[in-house]
Amino acid sequence: MTAPTYDAVNIGDELPALQLPPVTRTTLALFAGASGDHNPIHIDTDFARKSGMPDVFAQGMLGMAWLGRLITQWAPQSQLRRFDVRFQGITHLGHAVRCSGRVVEKLEHDGERCVRVEVLSANQYGQTRIAGEALVALR
User: Fold this and answer.
1) Fewer CB within 10 Å: C terminus or N terminus of the chain?
2) What percent of the chain has pLDDT over 90?
3) What per-residue string of b and e applies to 87-118 under the rule 16 or more CB within 10 Å gives b?
């Protein structure tokens, strides 16, 4: 990966999108094991239905992790200074999530040249699931 440089990046530049396969029960089980998030609403169909949901659904932090992957495939993790999101919708089984990002500001922060990047994940219907932003230091 060639890291972007501050001088080469422009406001409006888009990060290479990250298209993910449809969410499966296996996806949720693997993330539960890796993250320690064993909330039954994400892995137990009976529990989810008793809670009023049609089925299990993705952990919010799984969606945030996908957005983190989008950012760190563009710039090294060591250059990430801040990463904030707002959860705006549930990612259900079968949703094929697309993560995207766009540079919205160039600024100096704590003596470093940085860019502010808006990030978004949406399902195959164009419904936003997570929106947020990251502050990335660029050389």
Assistant:
1) N
2) 98
3) eebebbbebebbbbbebeeeeeeeeeebbbbe
